[in-house]
Design goal:
single chain; mainly alpha; 3 strands; 59% helix
């Protein structure tokens, strides 16, 4: 099939750039790789393969139309457009193509989804629940996941990769390695530090050689994403009003509660590790909703 090897080689070159130079996470690299391989399979299926240098915007448009026909959401299509933009931008910069096939591609509009979060009263109920539960390793991990996600707003990948030596007890903070290998410092309260200290002490007592990461399974091994996800999902199932039950809900809750209680948006941006303020501004919508509620309840003419 013409062009197959060439296109695959160009994908591999780009993926290696993301892996070794940009140092993106495995999850992000897998997403880029999947999108590009799907595009290549489409080219092979519809155009019987095509050389990399012959690609143009019409080939891209055909793929996007095919995705839409297969009922893919605008949000998912936009992610694939973003992948192709980065891919062709890289190869244009390195002189592997003369023109960018994405130049005439228009990104479809998507409706903004407001982040799902837990009400402050419900957070207190959950905290009380994990605080009084019998502490085997699973319930202990449930408590620590709840505590750290809500106290720091970390991403799941950041928390499960967090090592003990990234916690600075004297400065009451921890250092997180986020997206794009960017490091940021997050403050911790004394109560959270105390919980971490007790957790580490129990690890030392229970396991001879526990993993270097802070959070471990009941076997003393590094915690993996599905393990953490299922524990958080189980805990959040007690909040009946939630449509979504994932660690990201606790991250959204952290940010929403900060904004609702007067934190500056730029400060919240830094704490979340967002690269731009636009990603953080979604939390102001919840604040506006809260203000409307306050206005409605307090204004005599409302």
């Amino acid at each position: 099939m013409p062009g197959t090897d060439t296109f695959n080689e160009q994908i591999d070159t780009f993926i290696n750039f993301l892996k070794f130079e940009k140092r993106f996470s495995q999850h992000t690299i897998l997403a880029y790789s999947t999108d590009l391989k799907d595009f290549n399979l489409f080219l092979l299926r519809i155009f019987d393969g095509i050389s990399f240098t012959e690609l143009n915007y019409q080939h891209v448009r055909s793929w996007l139309a095919d995705l839409k026909e297969n009922k893919l959401t605008s949000r998912s299509i936009n992610r694939k457009i973003s992948t192709l933009k980065s891919f062709f931008k890289y190869h244009l910069k390195h002189g592997n193509i003369q023109a960018n096939p994405m130049a005439k591609i228009v990104t479809p509009k998507t409706s903004k989804r407001l982040p799902v979060f837990i009400k402050e009263d419900d957070v207190m109920v959950l905290k009380e629940r994990v605080g009084t539960a019998t502490e085997d390793w699973k319930t202990l991990n449930e408590k620590m996941l709840m505590t750290l996600f809500y106290a720091t707003g970390m991403r799941l990948s950041e928390l499960i990769n967090l090592k003990e030596n990234q916690v600075d007890f004297s400065r009451q903070q921890l250092k997180v390695l986020g997206k794009g290998n960017k490091e940021r410092s997050l403050p911790l309260t004394r109560d959270v530090l105390k919980d971490i200290q007790e957790y580490i002490a129990l690890k030392r007592k229970e396991f001879e050689q526990p993993a270097a990461e802070l959070m471990v399974t009941e076997k003393g091994k590094k915690m993996y994403p599905k393990y953490a996800y299922l524990l958080v999902k189980k805990l959040l199932s007690e909040v009946a009003t939630l449509d979504k039950k994932s660690p990201h809900v606790l991250r959204h809750t952290f940010a929403t509660h900060l904004v609702n209680n007067g934190a500056e948006l730029n400060a919240v941006k830094e704490l979340l590790g967002h690269s731009s303020l636009a990603a953080t501004q979604v939390y102001t919508h919840n604040t506006i909703d809260k203000l409307k509620e306050v206005y409605k309840n307090a204004h005599p003419k409302a």
